[in-house]
Amino acid sequence: MKSPVQDGRGIGALAVLMVLATTFLILFFALSFKRWEGQPPHIRFDRDFKSLAKLPNLSLQIEDVGVGLSHVNILLTQKDQIVTLVDQHYQAPSLFTFWSSVGQKSATFDLGHLIVEKYKIQEGPATIVVSASDNAWRNFWRGNQTRLEKDFAFDLYPPRLEVLSGQHYINQGGSECVVYRVSEDAEVSGVEVGADFFPGYVIGGQDGRLRFCLFAFAYNLPETTPLKLIARDAAGNEAKAGFWYKLFPKKFRTREITVTTAFLEKVVPEVMSHSPNVNDEGNPLKTFLAINSKLRQANHQQIREFSKKSANHFLWDGAFLQLSNSQVESLFADHRKYLFEGKEVDRQDHVGFDLSVTQQYPIEAANDGTVLYADYFGIYGNTVLVDHGCGLVTLYGHLSSIAVQPQQAVKKKSVLGRSGATGLAGGDHLHFGLFLHGVPVNPTEWWDGKWIKDHVLDRIKAATAVQS
Question: What's the CATH code, domain 161-250+453-467?
Fold first, then answer.
């Protein structure tokens, strides 16, 4: 028979073992807590799609914010075929470092390349199936799992594209219009001029495939810049067509602008007070140069963005108007050399007309439209931007006051504000600019009713007459 002392020692030893075991388990789970996380991998295509072309442009990213990826499998199925595009295993963190969460956190796959490499694409419906698991210890050590199926169709044929208008004459820095027909599967169409793209718009009538496109040949493009009409479907298939045109190259004036200390003291503090993204260079001239180049570039990029909000139909009616009673002070696309104390310090291009009458003269809308912007606007000071539809936007800069608000409809000759000398203006005048999808164009063409009739309205009218 055991003595009470021996029984007490046995119970004590067992209690110690239980405490140690419990402590170990608590410590183990505390250290391995991250390995028990329950967040599955996230699967994301780089774009939404309903169809893919013969040379697909598509990538896939898989991310796991927890313990990292364990396995990725990607299958392509079409008809009775199943093709393995990816079957990738990733090394898990070592069992001896179970407290670690370090693993393969993400993986990116060029599915377009993989499809072309491993499969002979056929027209018609198909499915991509993506499965991914991580290194978590959940689900009996199989990890958290995600599965995604994406149904789509392979579309191997580009849209049909037919040019309808005949001869196109375009001045460098000017505008032009082409009329064409596309097939119903065309999602995007228009004219490419170098890096600039000008979208086409539907011509109203029975034939919903008819389009017109206003495009520009920028004043600073090389004469050899190619022009082409393109149409692209949802899959990314692209049709291209040339069309007859004749370009009239232009040489634009060069003018010298003298920058004085008094001018810098006037314009720099004002512009800086409205432009928090421009750094003070610690020197009025250096700050002016930053405004004249970087802020100018930013303002023109903003105009491109504003143009994307343009109405998909004409808001204007007839010829655009030059400011009444105005004298031209500077021309479109003048090349300006800026001189300070007799030395050249900068070169910039003037992409509009400077028009002057008298101080604080009422500034009139050049045509019907909708106000896109009415506020201080960098180098242009107090500015109004008016949308006239189909990417055509007019700019009224250096105003002393503004009399309209964004979204407000205006008619031709409506007063937008009064002339002034805000922004980079040396004296009271109006800077008038005209932009086509963000590309500055010469307003003189749009001031000419005959040019508008011959190059735009008659061409659209002719296409409408043919379909009726």
Answer: 2.60.40.10
